[in-house]
Design goal:
The complex is a heterodimer of chains A (296) and B (291).
Chain A lengths: L1 H28 L6 H20 L5 H33 L4 H23 L14 E4 L2 E4 H23 L1 H11 L1 H6 L4 H26 L10 H11 L4 H22 L4 H15 L14
Antiparallel strand pairs in A: 1-2
Helix pairs in contact in A: 1-5, 1-8, 1-9, 1-10, 2-3, 2-4, 2-8, 3-4, 3-8, 5-6, 5-8, 6-8, 9-10, 10-11
Chain B lengths: L1 H26 L7 H19 L3 H23 L4 H21 L1 H4 L5 E2 L7 H20 L1 H11 L1 H6 L4 H27 L1 E2 L6 H14 L4 H18 L3 H18 L12 H19 L1
Antiparallel strand pairs in B: 1-2
Helix pairs in contact in B: 1-6, 1-9, 1-10, 1-11, 2-3, 2-4, 2-9, 3-9, 6-7, 7-9, 10-11, 10-12
The chains are: A mainly alpha (296), B mainly alpha (291).
């Protein structure tokens, strides 16, 4: 029981990384960023190839893990900034309707997924085992080390992010721009820089979650479609709310593990979908209760 | 010749699917990433009725379209009253859910191995007639009261609401209409290909349809149809590798979105060709009177 809850929490922690990366961009540009999944696939592979080319045999164990995760986070940040440059900079300058942001993000997501497919699809890859001892026992229950690390590392990443958002000047800028771009610009905030920084943060989170997903499952180009878990978590938590996304994701993780026990892993996605629909009917604004109105 | 027939048939089926997407995206400005899942519902329901209960094709097709509409109701009902991000996220989830259901009810649907042995009931003439009928219906819808209300809703939801348009109902009706059409495309596909597998209906197909609609111009049904015809049939004939084909699409779309945001056709429709003459006739006496 305790073990299952813990497993659910660690799964939920990965989902929360996805959901927060998605919510960050949603917060600032007010549209759903579908390219996030593409970033996740891309960075999962980037981390793997960095491991093959640079780290294999030079470092080992947890050091290797940290090296791979930071490479993936850096690649993710760069990719997301590039996405912003190619896909959204011009749209923002033209004050384009929100439809164009959607299309642009979908296109970039498919583009990244297909680039990965072309260059890497012929083989299946999988990450090495980073931690030699597989289980630790505490209070009479066994936990797998990978889950503990996932949970700890995700929490650290989220705490760093929250610190940046709520305790730094950059974070103040991000929150201001997400409130109102024009007023923020009038107050002397460089909106372009803030948007770029937001995309970089979201991409870094996408990179970290990509590596975790790659470790949990094997690497395949459609890995990024697991971004749907992040979507569901943010719908449950309330679109655009970061704490809501975290809570929603942790809940989703626990519910998924419970459902796998009850109905099996095959039927689980369908059940989760029905739960999400019921949730939308009963409490459409999500757990956090922020309602984001569409601009008139 | 057979090869060209099959390309034309598949292009026709894609055109019907694209029309469904056009209704959701082009008319009401919402994004459905589960459009292919409605196609899957239509295809699987009709094929299973035909296989297990020997239902004649006409009734199976009707049942398929009806099932797609029902599932559209399931997805649409909770989401139309929320902001438009929700319908994209929920349809995305719906697509994943449908695929997992299809994969896991192996006794009924054949699971990941696919549903085989569907009788062949669809050929090129039937597809051509279906395309023509769908174009007629969608064009009429676009030019009707509802279509115009949809355009108002897409441009500015709040303003449309304040003009007395029942926005939620309109969104739902259009969404259901689109689901029915897409479901019918699924029926045609099932009884043409004689084989269905869950992997065919993933979100890439839905996204591809969206891209097609967008390339043609989000305001133009003609544009959507022409770009559907060109973007599906040309690569088949030129035998591009499929992954590269999609990359080329994506680059085209990025160029269009940055430099020609209204799509290739803008809001031009083919009936302007003959409408123009009427307008000129009306205009000439007016000008004469002024002079």
């Amino acid at each position: 029981m305790l073990q299952n809850i813990f497993f659910g929490l660690s799964l939920g922690a990965v989902y929360s990384l996805i959901a927060v990366g998605f919510a960050l961009v949603f917060n600032i540009l007010k549209f759903s960023n579908f390219s996030h999944g593409g970033v996740m696939s891309f960075t999962a592979y980037a981390g793997y190839f960095a491991y093959i080319k640079f780290f294999d045999g030079k470092v080992s164990g947890s050091l290797m893990f940290i090296a791979i995760v930071s490479t993936a986070a850096a690649v993710g940040a760069i990719t997301a900034v590039a996405i912003e440059r190619v896909g959204f900079r011009r749209l923002r300058r033209n004050n384009a309707p929100v439809i164009y942001y959607f299309i642009s993000s979908i296109t970039l997501g498919i583009l990244l997924e297909n680039i990965v497919t072309i260059f890497a699809s012929s083989n299946f890859y999988s990450y090495p085992m980073f931690f030699s001892a597989n289980n630790i026992t505490l209070f009479g229950t066994t936990f797998s080390v990978a889950d503990v690390v996932t949970l700890l590392f995700s929490s650290c990443a989220l705490i760093v992010l929250l610190f940046v958002l709520y305790r730094s000047k950059l974070g103040l800028g991000v929150r201001t721009v997400s409130f109102d771009v024009n007023t923020a610009s009038l107050m002397g905030i460089d909106a372009n820089r803030v948007v770029m920084a937001t995309f970089a943060m979201s991409g870094a989170l996408g990179g970290i979650s990509g590596v975790f997903l790659g470790m949990n499952y094997s690497l395949y180009p459609q890995l990024g479609q697991l971004v749907v878990k992040g979507f569901i978590a943010s719908v449950i938590g309330g679109l655009g709310s970061i704490t809501g996304a975290v809570i929603g994701a942790l809940l989703l993780g626990i519910v998924e593990v419970a459902l796998i026990g009850v109905v099996g892993s095959g039927w689980m996605p369908a059940c989760v979908f029905v739960i999400m629909l019921v949730f939308l009917l009963l409490r459409p604004r999500g757990i956090a209760g922020v309602i984001v109105q569409e601009k008139a | 010749m057979d090869y060209i027939y099959s390309i034309l048939t598949l292009t026709g089926i894609t055109m019907i699917g694209v029309m469904g997407t056009y209704m959701v995206t082009g008319l009401t400005g919402q994004f459905s990433f589960g459009q292919a899942a409605f196609m899957a519902v239509g295809g699987y329901v009709s094929a299973m009725l035909a296989l297990k209960f020997n239902v004649p094709f006409v009734f199976a097709a009707l049942a398929g379209a009806a099932a797609a509409t029902l599932s559209g109701l399931l997805v649409g009902l909770p989401t139309v009253r929320l902001r438009r991000d929700y319908i994209s996220l929920v349809t995305f989830g719906f697509g994943e859910a449908i695929i997992s259901v299809l994969n896991n009810s192996a006794q009924l649907t054949g699971g990941a191995e696919g549903l085989v042995g569907i009788p062949k009931r669809v050929d090129l003439p039937l597809v051509a007639i279906s395309v023509a009928c769908c174009i007629f219906v969608v064009a009429c819808y676009k030019n009707s009261k509802y279509g115009r209300q949809c355009l108002a809703l897409r441009t500015d939801e709040l303003a449309a609401r304040s003009m007395g348009i029942d926005v939620n109902r309109l969104k739902l009706v259009t969404f259901l209409f689109a689901s029915a059409i897409t479901g019918y495309a699924g029926v045609l596909y099932a009884f043409y290909a004689q084989y269905l597998e869950p992997g065919y209906f993933n979100w890439t197909i839905s996204a591809e349809w969206l891209i097609i609609v967008f390339v043609g111009g989000i305001n133009s049904l003609t544009g959507a149809l022409v770009s559907a015809a060109i973007l599906t049939s040309l690569p088949e004939m030129l035998r591009f590798a499929s992954a590269w084909r999609i990359i080329i699409y994506c680059v085209i779309v990025l160029l269009i979105i940055n430099f020609r945001p209204n799509g290739i056709f803008g809001d031009w429709e083919i009936n302007r060709l003959w409408k123009k003459k009427n307008n000129e006739k009306q205009r000439t006496p007016g000008k004469g009177a002024q002079a």
